[in-house]
Design a protein that fits this description.
With about 220 residues, the protein is of the alpha/beta class. The protein has 8 helices and 10 strands. α5 packs parallel to α6.
């Protein structure tokens, strides 16, 4: 598809906002940068992760959209992920554990506030547990479509913008897949059970945030 004549204005706005958010993240202990494109985001990821490293990738659409899985594999990294339909139940559980123990934990965020907080929601809890603590290096790649004005907006985004399409992606049918928004259900197929708010970068590890001037992920 050809670029819209209005894309330049959108890009300019996202760059101004992205630089503001990156500065606010940096003030809270995150190593934050802004880039204009998915290609540049991938280049930043490859700067951070050396050849031969192990990389855990949880359920992130963004990481797959920027081509990180293939690029890391091609450079000799061991990419660990549980999105392999051929895995048995036991093998999948082991992959979930191994993702957390890799040299790098590479993921996205469901939302990021303008003042520099990262907000995520999870069904199994594996993704948010890897964000909350680890001895490895944590890397977030976040599209500017996920920036919200404040914490209330970020929490709302996790429930209403991120969760329904994620449930649909998984072939599940909690009520939000019919209504298009969260109804705080008690469905067995609910995929939003654990909410994590990173108000600051946690201690004992480096946390990188790459903000991208594109619409990425859910």
């Amino acid at each position: 598809m050809n670029e819209s004549p209005f894309d330049a204005a959108r890009k300019k706005h996202w760059r101004a906002l992205g630089l503001t958010v990156a500065a606010n993240l940096a003030a809270k202990g995150f190593e934050a940068v802004y880039v204009d494109s998915a290609e540049e985001a991938l280049a930043e990821v490859l700067k951070l992760i050396p050849a031969g490293a192990s990389v855990g990738v949880p359920g992130s659409v963004t990481i797959r959209e920027i081509g990180a899985m293939e690029a890391l594999t091609q450079r000799g990294c061991t990419v660990i992920h549980h999105w392999d339909p051929s895995l048995s139940g036991e093998e999948r559980l082991q992959k979930l554990q191994d993702e957390l123990l890799a040299d790098f934990f590479l993921t996205s965020s469901n939302a990021v506030t303008k003042d520099g907080m990262l907000v995520n929601i999870d069904g199994n809890g594996n993704r948010v547990s890897g964000m909350a603590w680890g001895k490895n290096t944590l890397i977030f790649v976040i599209g500017m479509n996920k920036v919200t004005a404040d914490l209330d907006g970020a929490i709302s985004r996790t429930r209403n913008a991120a969760t329904p399409p994620n449930a649909l992606r998984l072939g599940l049918e909690p009520p939000c897949t019919k209504t298009g928004h969260c109804v705080n259900c008690s469905s067995e197929e609910r995929v939003c059970k654990a909410l994590l708010i990173l108000e600051r970068a946690t201690g004992g590890r480096k946390t990188h945030v790459i903000l991208v001037g594109e619409d990425l992920g859910f």
